[in-house]
Amino acid sequence: MIYILLKYLKYHWIYSLILGYFGIAIGLYLFTDIHILVPCLWKAVSGYDCPGCGLTTALIALLRLEFREAWLENPLIYMLVPLLTSLILRDFATFWRKELVEE
Fold it and tell me: Closest Cα to residue 43, out of 30, 57, 33, 22?
């Protein structure tokens, strides 16, 4: 399974880059309070929050099991996390089945 997971991440290298960056950035923020996340371009240009503003903060709150704080940051997190998780798992399952057929 580990072999297929590594092959999946190599095949979908963009997932690896995004997961690696966010994993390191969120880990640094959680454990050392160092903030290296990219600021919202929309908010920097216009001064107004975009619909995605607060999603990273909401995800960090979810990781800390602070459900109310996550909701207050951006309620959209409760739709996006299950949706993205199911999409990635479905894509991985398809990749896995394809790998099993090729072997």
Answer: 57
Per the listing, tokens 């072999």 go with 3
- Residue 16 CA to residue 18 CA, distance in Å, equals 6
Cα 47 to Cα 36, 43, 55, 56, distances in angstroms:
20, 5, 17, 18
Cα angle at 44 between 83 and 68, to 5 degrees?
Answer: 45
Write down the pTM of the prediction. 0.72
Q: What pLDDT is attached to residue 103?
A: 65
- Please state, as a whole number, how many other Cβ atoms lie within 10 Å of the Cβ of residue 56: 19
